[in-house]
Amino acid sequence: LAAPEPRPALSQRPRKLSVSRVETWISNPYEIFAREILGLEPLDPLGQEPGPALRGSIIHDALAAFSQAYPDTLPDDIEGELMRHARAALDAYAAHPRIAAFWIPRFERFAAWFAATEPRRRADIERVATEVSGALVLDAPGGAFHLTARADRIDIASHALVISDYKTGAPPSDAKVLAGVSPQLPLEAAIALDATLGFEKIAKRPIATLRYIRASGGEPPGDERDVKCADVAALAAETLNGLARHVARFDDVRTPYRPLRRARFTS
User: Fold this and answer.
1) Residue partners of 48: CB distance under 8 A and separation at least 6
2) Which of 32, 90, 151, 229 is deepest in the core (most CB within 10 A)?
3) What is the DSSP string of 106-139?
4) Which of 215, 155, 227 is CA-nearest to residue 185?
5) What burial letters (b/e) apply to 144-154, b meaning 16+ CB within 10 Å?
6) Does the pLDDT at position 63 exceed 60?
7) Residue 50 DSSP symbol
8) pTM of the prediction?
9) Hey, what's the torsion of the CAs at 177, 135, 213, 266, to 10 degrees?
10) What dihedral do alpha carbons 215, 118, 67, 174 form, nearest 10°?
11) Cα–Cα nearest to 143, from 31, 12, 28, 24
């Protein structure tokens, strides 16, 4: 059977997507058709074990709660405070053997790593903003297209910003980020630099660094990697231009939402 090639009317095509959904739109347009146009969501299998999505949510929530509690100064017991914010969620699942045996010890190892490395990240930082909402609007053939984001973390210094994304799995390579295949952080930088909207309560400053912070709890228990990019503003502009071309392509009703899985998107 031939793969489906739906071509919905322009009025049905989304005019708003988050930066995380843009990568899906690039890698597999049919998923955007199924979820954003048809409103379909995959059902979890019956009896499904707690998986990576839940673990990632717990870690993100704990890190967000920690930064919200300590936006400009760090507590004496960084590790203990991070664990305190994680405990409420972890304890709710503590009766599950996988979580008791693996998740809690892994988060404890990550918390120790985070406590050892966070003071360096906070050096010369005025405050840390977390779970920050932002947006910009692109002009497109089908009308205004709204790009939204909820940044995991933005470190605010007097002269620049550092935009970080928390990962529990392997972050994308620099090559994928620079090529626009993994556009989330560059698009968040574009939002931060947008003169009209941008991120809520974040003043416009140059972007010094795009960063991934990985919370694996394994070996190593945590990792930090800055995207190697000489000019973040140029990368943001280039990635945003690529998105504008993608939006224009799908504003043509002849463009189908094909199911597509390219080798470069699997990892």
Assistant:
1) none
2) 151
3) HHHHHHHHHHHHHHHHHTT-SEEEEEEEEEEEE-
4) 227
5) ebebbbebbbb
6) yes
7) P
8) 0.92
9) -40
10) -50
11) 12
User: Count of residues for the chain?
Assistant: 267
Q: Which candidate, 81, 59, 60, places its Cα nearest to that of 69? A: 81
> What pLDDT, in 10s, does the model give residues 180-227?
999 999 999 999 999 999 999 999 999 999 999 999 888 999 999 999
Structure tokens that stand for 162 in this block = 């550092």
Nearest to 210 by CA among 230, 189, 192: 189
pLDDT band at 50 (very low <50, low <70, confident <90, very high): low
Residue 266 has pLDDT above 70, yes or no: no
**Distance of alpha carbon 36 from its chain centroid, rounded?**
19
Q: Is 98's pLDDT higher than 50? A: yes
**Separation in Å, CA 31 to CA 171, 172, 187, 217:** 21, 20, 20, 31
Residue type, 234: A
pLDDT tens digit sequence for 110-156: 999 999 999 999 999 999 999 999 999 999 999 999 999 999 999 99
Give the type of residue at 19.
V
Q: Which two tokens stand for residue 22?
A: 């843009």
pLDDT higher than threshold 50 for residue 265: no
Residues 165/155, Cβ–Cβ less than 8 Å: no
Q: Which two tokens stand for residue 186?
A: 């560059």
Which band of pLDDT confidence, cut at 50, 70 and 90, is reported for residue 15?
A: very high
The span from the CA of 223 to the CA of 215, in Å, is 7
